[in-house]
């Protein structure tokens, strides 16, 4: 009878690594955005009204406003709301795209959202956005309430400053009209 123990060894190794990471997360003191620090705060909401309450979105917004109101040094910038039942692809989330642009324009320096899956279904996209926002001249942080993750926490600084993912100096943005780049390939 063939043995597939090597499959279980790999699974076991991954489970061990996950367990060690969870233990590390529990052992550290979680950092959150400081209420005494000045922030321009935006709230991102991924919304699908599947509740029995007609005014759920208004109620949810009011909860955020009440909490932000407890931090007198925080300036509320606005709500960015994308509708949909599942986590978005970033390229189709219009409000998220506008929020990112406002971060680049210096209008926002702290984004608060309920959970990471509201932003994207791909953790790599969330990580990439966090790193890009942290690399700005005035770093922008994201606070995920449910996961209690603040992307500008001190224990993430080494990861955020890793230049490996950043574009090189010779990197160029492709023009919107790709036919200019392709030339005669599609003629």
Classify the beta-strand content into a percent band: 15-25%
What's the number of helices?
A: 7
Helicity level, as a percent range? 25-40%
Strand/helix succession: HEHEHEHHEEHH
| CATH architecture term of the domain at 39-164 | 3-Layer(aba) Sandwich
Strands across the major sheet, in which order?
2-1-3-4-5
Cα distance, first to last residue?
A: 59 Å
**pLDDT average, as an integer?**
79
- Oligomer state equals single chain
**Structural class of the helix and strand makeup?**
alpha/beta
Our Rg estimate from Cα atoms comes to 20 Å
Explain how this protein is built.
By secondary structure, this protein is of the alpha/beta class. It has a domain of 126 residues: 3-Layer(aba) Sandwich (Rossmann fold). It has seven helices and five strands. The chain has a five-stranded mixed β-sheet with strand order 2-1-3-4-5, sandwiched between helices. Strand 4 and strand 5 form a beta hairpin. The longest helix is centred in the first third of the chain and has 23 residues. The mean pLDDT is 79.
């Amino acid at each position: 009878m063939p043995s597939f123990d090597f499959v279980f060894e790999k699974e076991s190794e991954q489970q061990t690594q996950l367990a060690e990471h969870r233990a590390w997360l529990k052992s550290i003191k979680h950092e959150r955005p400081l209420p005494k620090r000045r922030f321009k705060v935006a709230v991102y909401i991924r919304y699908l009204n599947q509740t029995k309450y007609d005014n759920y979105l208004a109620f949810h917004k009011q909860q955020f406003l009440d909490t932000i109101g407890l931090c007198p040094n925080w300036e509320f910038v606005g709500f960015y709301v994308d509708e949909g039942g599942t986590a978005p692809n970033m390229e189709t989330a219009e409000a998220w795209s506008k929020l990112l642009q406002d971060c680049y324009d210096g209008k926002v320096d702290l984004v608060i959202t309920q959970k990471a899956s509201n932003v994207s279904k791909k953790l790599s996209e969330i990580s990439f956005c966090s790193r890009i926002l942290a690399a700005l001249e005035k770093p922008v942080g994201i606070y995920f309430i449910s996961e209690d993750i603040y992307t500008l926490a001190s224990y993430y600084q080494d990861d955020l400053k890793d230049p490996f993912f950043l574009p090189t100096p010779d990197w160029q943005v492709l023009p919107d009209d790709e036919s200019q780049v392709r030339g005669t390939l599609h003629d």
